[in-house]
Every structure is written in C-alpha cells, then in structure tokens.
Write a structure and sequence with these properties.
Blueprint (H helix, E strand, L loop, with lengths): L6 E3 H8 L3 H10 L5 E3 L2 E5 L13 H27 L1
Antiparallel strand pairs: 1-3, 2-3
Helix pairs in contact: 1-2
Length: 86
C-alpha cells in the first residue's frame, strides 16, 4: 500500500531541493530526476528527491540569511564585482 505522500509535485520537489521549478523540470527532461507525467503535471517519488526530511526555512532563518547577504555585499561588493568580471 503506497504511503500517503509517496509522490510529490514538481513545485514541492523544488522547495525540498532548494531550486527553482524550472530547474526541476530541466532535471526531469534530462533524465536526472525520475518522474511520472500525469496529464500536464509530474509526480516525483519522494525517495528520488534525496533528503526529503529537510525542512523549509523559517521566516527568521530567511531574515538572517538576507542580513548576512547584505553584510557580505556591503563589505565585499567591489571584490565581488571584480571577481564577476573574470
């Protein structure tokens, strides 16, 4: 008997993997992520996504990450621009 959430949608897989939906569809098309097409949608086996136990970021975690990114850009912005040119 299949588990209740054995299969997940592409957007849910994207959240779990921390990538965009488009990236999930590209992986499906490239054969890197097995999926079943049901109508216009894809069903992805949760076990194929990898570490499905990863929890989504909380609002507080997202805010800390945003602050760290802003601090990094403020301190190293010029260096990052120079590195991007290489």
């Amino acid at each position: 008997m299949p588990k209740k959430e054995q299969f997940i949608s592409a957007p849910k897989a994207a959240k779990i993997l921390g990538i965009s939906r488009v990236a999930v569809f590209k992986r499906i098309k490239a054969g890197q992520l097995p999926a079943i097409k049901i109508g216009r949608n894809y069903a992805i086996n949760r076990s194929d996504v990898g570490d499905a136990g990863v929890q989504e970021l909380t609002a507080a975690s997202k805010q800390r990450i945003d602050q760290a990114v802003k601090k990094t850009v403020a301190e190293y912005g010029e260096m990052l621009k120079l590195l991007a040119r290489e």
